[in-house]
Design a protein that fits this description.
The chain is of the alpha/beta class and 500 residues long. The chain is 38% helix and 22% strand. α1 packs across α8, α2 crosses α7 and α3 packs antiparallel against α7.
Length: 500
Amino acid sequence: MTTEHVAKRSKPDVKILDNYISGKTVAPSTGKYLSVTAPATGEEIARVALSEAADVDAAVAGALAALPKWSALTVKARSQVLYKFRQLVLAHREELADLVVLEHGKNRVEAYGSIDKGVETVEWACSLPQVCQGRYLEVSTGVTCHEVREPVGVVASIVPFNFPFMVPMWTLPIALAAGNAYILKPSEKVPMTMYRVKDLLKEAGLPDGVFSIVNGTAPVVNAFCDHPKINAVTFVGSSKVAELVSHRARLTNKRVLALGGAKNHMVSMPDCNIPMCANDIVASFTGCCGQRCMAASVLLTVGKQEELVKKIVEVASNLKAGQAGGEVGPVIDDLAQQRIIRYINEAEASGAQILLDGRGWATERKEGWWIGPTIIRHTNRADPALHDEIFGPVLSILEVESKEDAIAIENANPYGNAACIYTNAGATAEWFSKRFSVGMVGVNIGVPVPREPFSFGGSNISKFGDMDITGDGGLEFFTKRKKVTTKWNPPAAGRQDWMS
């Protein structure tokens, strides 16, 4: 939960997080701050700057001043800075994981995993000297064309609360390696991790102004979209806001990529491997307490699969509340907790069967915002829990008659991030893979996140804008292709053509 404050401090041990512009920490022009609380306890742990357009103007000015020198470096020289940054992240892995556990609530193993996954994107950015070369071809007699990639310019990224380190790393390393200047708006709910990362970037040798942080809420997002000197914007969050950001940024002719929410479906066939399937499904809907856009939240069983359902309930019921590895951490704040409980209550009231009820965690634990794994068996296909993104550890199960029925339900879902088929038959897996209306498909994998060089991105209302956000999609987004056509000598006699 975040609360606006005008006062600078409440007590000495509460960290004050200002903006970071041109290599210096700068207080917001508003003089206002937000209270940041630990999800596991509800205690205030920091206060973060509440900025406005004037602060964005200052960050853009700093970025524009630093951009010419940074972009003039070779991609090899820029990637060397990122390689040093990678080494520093690994050296401070424990500290960064501490911050993720504190401000987000992830369990320890999940925090490590999110750091390591972020490092993977840094490593891919370090490889750009080997993968970003352009093309060359003699296109006509005595005439050649070659292609070079140039940076877009000043780019801005708006990131969500659910992965304080990993999601910023989806954009930051590729954008920097490509020669851009980068301005970040972290989620106001989890600003501490990236505030520490700024120091590691500076220690790695990144010039002042190339990386900036402007903290805040909607006014900062609007200023990013409206600023005439910001050339590209990326966003990760809800579909409603993603669409608004995409439309607003387009008004100033920006390149934009806005990733939205998801309602990811899993389909289990009667021939699936029950123990593997059950463990994977539970990991998918309870991991990170269900607060990830790749979490599967609907299981469509083709026919009766009581043994599978029983095993899923058994595995999920053994999970405990906490932040050690294998435990389920809290949700981000009280509003999220109340929203999740409301969906469970509504499903129960409509006649759904609650096979595993996690609502008791909210009352059993007196501090923080907790909700346990919950499994709902539906009979009413109109239940909101089957259609809306709940963003919590809730699995909805619906029995369907056939694979055609299952694919019709999945295709009717307006989102398009991910889907998974559980089967031992290759032909069945191929059938679903071709028909799922999503950007990422899993075969016996409930969280089918692609790894570099493959890029991350959905379809339908899960993505608005250009390209994907990581891997080769990220390289395409953060660069412009320039084509150079060259002729040095006049054509030989009798060899005239339109390009000569």
